[in-house]
Write a structure and sequence with these properties.
Chain A: It comes from Olea europaea subsp. europaea. The complex is a heterodimer of chains A (703) and B (285). Chain A contains 21 helices and 18 strands. Chain A is α/β, with parallel strands linked by helices and 703 residues long. The chains are: A alpha/beta (703), B mainly alpha (285).
Amino acid sequence: MHGIYRKTPSQDEQEASALKAIELRDLQSQFLHLHHNKIYTKEALETSAKLLEVNPEHYTGWNYRKLAVQHFLNHQSETEADSESIQSVLNEELKVVENALKKNFKSYGAWYHRKWVLSKGHSSTDNELRLLVKFQKLDSRNFNAWNYRRFITMLKKISDEEELQYTTDMIYDNFSNYSAWHNRSVLLSHLFEKRGERQSHKESVLEEEFEFVRNALFTDPDDQSGWFYHLWLLDQTVKLEPFLLSSWPPHGSSRSVDYLDGRNLFPSMHSLSKDRMFPLVLYFSEPVEGVNSSTVTIECEYYANEDVIWRPLSANKFGFSQVWFTYLNLPDEVHSLKDCHVKVFVAQFPDIVSSSGFSCSQTSHIVFSLCVPSHDREHAEGQTVPRFSWKDKEFYSHATQSHDASLLRSLHQLKIAEESKSKAASDWSMKIISNEIAHCRELLSSTNCKIGKLTLARLLMAQNKLISYGIPNDGIEVHYEEILGLYHDLMKLDPVHICCYEDESSLVLLKQVTSSMESILRYCYQYGDSTSPRMYPCLCLRLNGLSLSQIGSVERLLWIQMLDLSHNKIRSIEGLEALQLLSCLNLSNNKICSFTALEPLRSLKSLKVLNISYNEIGAHAVNTRRYLCSSPMTHTVENDWNFKEFTNSGVKLTNHWDVFFIFRDLNLIQLDIMGNAVVNDQLKSFLFKLMPSLKWLDGENRN
Amino acid sequence: MGELKTEKHVEYILSVEKRKDDFVSVVMEHLRLNGAYWGLTTLDILGKLEAVDQDEVVSWVMQCQHKSGGFGGNIGHDPHLLYTLSAIQVLALFDKIEVLDIEKVSNYIAGLQNEDGSFSGDMWGEVDTRFSYIAICSLALLHQLDKINVEKAVKYILSCQNLDGGFGCTPGAESHAGQIFCCVGALAITGSLHHVDEDLLGWWLCERQVKSGGLNGRPEKLPDVCYSWWVLSSLIMIDRVHWIDKEKLVKFILDCQDKENGGISDRPDDAVDVFHTYFGVAGKC
């Protein structure tokens, strides 16, 4: 019980309490009788007032008083409207509320009743404001009071600017007033929206706010309120127009179409299919919508732009997405073709919009070329599919072979077209961030404040993001080691939140790994030797054993066909859905807790080899990804699956709906799942049935 | 130092059920239906639901139903969404949903949706995102979600999303762990969690864990066992529960037990009640 100390009551206390109980019980049953019989006499009203003073949580009491007021008002209209008596009746209600609030300042029923009375329009809103100031001096965090204040200021049409001044006063009174800071952010957001286009005004307001919050942060760095507000200011500072970050195929590349549709890896799988379909992927700087065949046009001799359908590629497939894709089809007759050029124009009209409302105003373009090799495909038919091995000995450190090196080079410039970065706003953002970094460092030089360190790490990453967008930065370089060091300190300083810091620092590490050609080459290996007739030599990115807990920097990894993420701490594979060329994926020895966590794989049409062995599927009572996955559980997918062909598979389907959901659209050749608590023979035979293409399961051949 | 004193808690809950005449019970008479839900669910979690007389409980629950189809907090009290959900949940616990006139209850609930997608708690019009959750959760349990405009309901909830990633009770209201649970829960049930910034909200939520291991409901407030549920459950739904220290939280909950008389309180050494007993036990599991 809030605020009541635990102790065994004395004999006297027990007796007194028993008496009080009898009194209250009588009062309550008396009241209910009056209510059910619709008795609204003066005495009856006094009973209800007494009840609400003792027990303001008795919600039926408040209902009764509203009925009584209505009853009175109805009678008033029969005689002459007497505004004085109406006011006195309503004032009585306000008094009852005040008495109730004295008993319980947080009573929802009391506050709402006051609101209901004020809505009738006969009461003084000035009184209310005076009362609110009094209340808020007593408890500045009471959100019922703040909500009521919002209601009154709206009734009185008080301007946002005036209210802003009120929050300023409250904050000067006490910096540790999260409620006031919160209100401030709400008011400023309204003002920004209203001002619309005047970016320069927004900039000067933000600069003032940074200075204002700095007072709070330096005065008491361990109070959270100012830091949360600072985070919001930072978010407002780095809001830029969205633009195209990267694409697959990349600008300026020249690829054999075999490479693009995965034929190079599994030629025997494709020899019977005639269509030459390959993905075209656009990766934006932030989630956008409005990507369609009018905002993005494709020029290609063999392809009609109007037929192109662009789809968002995020785990949830709704509306806004950072990644958009389509498939391009080369007609069957095109057997051998040299250098077919494809031009993609992005943002022909400013209809591509980010969720913060900024539109992609500058057009960018990608040009790449394809060729179709005219080799004889027949030798690949009839070959048995070899089992893929992830063992170290299969991988050779990457030698800079010309075609792969040029591929990587084009990726690491992330160069779409120079004109696609909006200049002015971003210069200001860079200036502010650098400023804040300096102030943060100053603060940290005299205090070892946890949120301060976290904020510095986040500021440095924000600066890094702006630098990677090509915004001039006076030669400041990104020092990943410093940022990783900050997270390392945080894990020691604040071990309670260690996993949060691990997640954030995984993203930093991946940014570092993908930051330059030199660094990414260290993690690139060649699979198999070049003498193997079955496969073309293939690049594998090996990021195993790096303590990664999540995936990031995907915009730089769109070229990946083979990825080894084993022996990490991965729980979520969000981000992988963008890797449309991914054919071989190793997620063994991680922390994947459910099949629903694998939802991003459903988008990977090229995936053939998957290793999820030695994870934690089936080991946890609670599935924490259940509601993040679109499924019948979240009422987003119609439950019209055709289970009939699987009814005799020996598996209780309702228990394994997630297996059905994830694997039924995959065409895996090889799957490893051992070492997960959920695995048993029934599950394995179900998987064979679900995926006719599956040849190897945990090393066992289908036959 | 710590284990959950299951037997004591069961005894405590059963004693509360029988005790109708002491002051605390009388003053909470109007929300007895909520209390029933908390107490019975706790018994169920602890595997002791059969200790109560199911028929007696079900019959009493049905007597709390008003002619409008909604349920009041006790017999004779006015109907309200708050108690309607508890009624449905208690019946579901006993697998007795069939005693309900589902059409009637669903219509009562659906009738409380407003033009802007929000829900009023009852005919008097108080709007709060808690009521959005209650309506959506109730109707999902009854398989009647199509009786409301889900899209608008979601839109209203999103209009209460704040700049710190959390949610308040109405647009512009401050983020609070209880409201966050309600909004995230409603979004989860309707498959709309992609509108939530899991990292931003996850960080706000995990910062509720203070040095003692307990969780508070908002920045710079005291920890309270009931937030073990609101915060923890929200973190689970957005897959960020690994961002708090579970062991420290469990220790905090166990420290809030009254080891002699049973029951759990909001923080160590405060008086126990059924509300916090439920949240403590649920959080620990």
